[in-house]
Amino acid sequence: MAERIVEDATEGKVLSQIKEKKYADKYRDLNQPIYLIGVEFSKKERNVVGFEVEAP
Fold first, then answer.
1. What's the start-to-end Cα distance of the chain, in Å?
2. How do the pLDDT tens digits run along the chain, 56 residues long?
3. Are 21 and 15 contacting, i.e. CB atoms less than 8 angstroms apart?
4. β-strands 2-6, 47-54: how paired?
5. For residue 15, what are the CA distances in angstroms to 8, 30, 51, 56?
6. Is the pTM of this model over 0.70?
């Protein structure tokens, strides 16, 4: 799981960050389902403003 802090609105970039940094790669040998979960938090609202899930 990864999170991003954004100024106002959701940017929709959190899953690309997970993929670019290859956070899930160390779990691939476990032969279990892997779910990428990204959450964006608003700095202004101090709340969740975006949420993405993907099963690669």
1. 13
2. 555 554 555 566 778 888 899 989 999 999 999 999 888 887 777 888 888 889 86
3. no
4. unpaired
5. 18, 21, 9, 11
6. no
